[in-house]
Amino acid sequence: MDCPKCGYAMTDFDVECPRCKRLGEQASAMSSAAEAAPTAARPATPKQPHGGPPSTPASTRYVGVRHDLAWMAGAFPLTMLVVQLALGSPRGLAGWAIVFTILGANVLLLVIDKRAITALGVDTSSLDPLLIPVYLFRRAPRTNGSHGPAYLWCILYCIVAIIEAVPDATPTNTRQHADTPPEHAQAPRQETIQNQAGFTWLEITENWHYTNSMIRPADGWRDVLVAVTVINSSSSQDTISVNPLDFFAEVDNASYRYDFNAERLIPDNAPRLPCVTLAPGGEAAGVMGFRVPAGGSIQMRWTPQMGSQFQIRSEQVR
Asked: Widest CA span of the chain, in angstroms?
């Protein structure tokens, strides 16, 4: 006969429909698995410690931590090094004031850094900004940072300490010499000027004859010719240059340079003073013309170029 539920053809030996029995067993097994799945997949909830903040996962512990202030604090001894080079390692109260000011600014940077990383959930209970190198060393593993700032601070501070100690290595005899009272100190020895040069000069004044092509001096002025002989001493060690433009005629404290209009009064057979360089023992002679105020006597002055190491002497020939 056929099953009244599914129409399966049953035999005379079937007590119940095999198909309906199999379908019922499958439905019962699926229902049992669905009820057991949520209970088995539910993760265990970690127990939180009583009275403490929830733990932060390791993957998010260092998110947002910056290391700029740590590197600035590590390089801060450079400020002290710059002050040493600029001020020459000041001593006494001034030196200590500079040291404490720079160290105080260094500690202030670490205080700001500690507050910043504390706000991000980093454990800073063992970080003390007053112990600068210790702070930098302990900070590195807590923030997944580098020990570079700590090593940098130690190296730079050692350099600063070495520079501070160098002036103290001055020999004892040198310091005693520096502390010698002025009355016992030897006077500085002045170097004697070994380069000597001189010139003689002769004033020539006449009633000059001016041609139409010559420019006469204005009223109150006169032309004068000067015969000059220049000698570089044989005891000199350097050469000296001679140039007519380096000679001046002085009248009533006023100086007048070589004049080209007065030069035309020099006779053709008279030599003009040349531009020449005199070796030790050398000599040069010639005539120059000057236009000066009338009525006053003249004095000659020679200011040679590159002659600062020479002692210059002059003599008037009458």
From this structure: 177
Residue 170's pLDDT is 44
Phi, psi (degrees; rounded to nearest 5) at 115: -65, -40
What are 85's two structure tokens?
């080079």
Tokens of 301: 């002055």
Q: Are 117 and 65 in contact (CB under 8 A)?
A: yes
Distances (CA, A) of 192 to 7, 57, 166, 189: 143, 86, 38, 9
Beta strands 310-316 and 195-204: pairing type?
parallel
136-174 pLDDT per residue, tens: 898 888 888 888 888 988 998 888 778 766 654 444 444
Provide, rounded to the nearest whole percent, the portion of the chain with pLDDT above 70. Answer: 76
**123 by DSSP, 3-state: which?**
coil
Helix (H, G, I), strand (E, B) or coil at 287: strand
**Architecture of the domain delimited by 196-316:** Sandwich (2.60)
**Residues 233 and 198 sit within 8 Å (Cβ to Cβ):** yes
Q: Output the six-digit token pair for 15.
A: 């007590």
Specify the DSSP element, H or E, that contains 29. helix 18-41
Give counts: helices (H), strands (E), the chain: 8, 9
Question: Would you say 108 and 71 are in contact if contact means Cβ atoms under 8 Å apart?
Answer: no
**pLDDT exceeds cutoff 90 at 109:** no
Give the residue extent of every domain in the chain: 1-30, 67-165, 196-316
